[in-house]
Amino acid sequence: MGKVVMYSSVSVDGFLADENDQPGPLFDWLTSGDVPLDESGVLKVAQVSFDYTRAYWDQIGVTIAGRHVFDLTDGWDGTPPAGVDHVVVVTHRPAPEGWDPEAPFHFVDGVEAAVAKAQELAGDRIVEIAAGDVGGQALAAGLVDEVRMDVVPVVFGSGKRYFGSVDAQHLLEDPDEVIQGNRVLHLRYQIRH
Fold it and tell me: Where is the Bacterial bifunctional deaminase-reductase C-terminal domain positioned along the sequence (predicted)?
């Protein structure tokens, strides 16, 4: 089975977005360079960020996100983000009315069921779980193998926390990678089990 990686861009003080779900400058690093990150032509990063991010993105088979993120993005219009094959949505509600049943989205109840479904779909590829409440629940349940953070030099002061509502200590190993890009510091940690 592929490993489960909790991931997001994050402020220096540990927030994914402000109180109104706005990411502010957290994704500015994705347009701060001259190397195209994907075919869109919109995302351009520094070469070091390309080398780190593209290699990671190419390994992702499935992304797990919560219903809140799904709703905020309008379900990515039925197309999984960043070339991912499938999205597993953690929700207590059914798919939205009129949702295309052929879209590669799977609606499940609970993080344990989401990780199991994602690992089944991903095979040996990485299962990426969005940081925040769902990622924090998976971390607390012992389902996360690695934490990746793209730390952006901004302080929010308050907002949506990277680790969601985690309220217990979890030890990480020393960072496997620390890479400085333009307006971002890429960090990768293994979870200490």
Answer: 5-170
Q: Give me the domain span that covers residue 29.
A: 4-190
90: nearest Cα among 111, 104, 115, 71:
111
CA–CA dist 87, 72 (Å, integer): 15
Enter the tokens of residue 3. 């490993």
* pLDDT score for 57: 94
Average pLDDT, rounded, for the chain: 95
* 82 closest CA partner among 178, 9, 189: 9
162: domain CATH number?
A: 3.40.430.10
Say how many C-beta atoms besides its own lie within 10 A of residue 141's C-beta. 12
CB 52 within 8 A of CB 29: no
Number of domains forming the structure of the chain: 1
**Residues 124-174: pLDDT tens digits?**
999 999 999 999 999 999 999 999 999 999 999 999 999 999 989 999 999
- Mean pLDDT confidence for 17-38: 96
Report pLDDT for 2. Answer: 87
What does the DSSP 8-state code read for residue 110? S
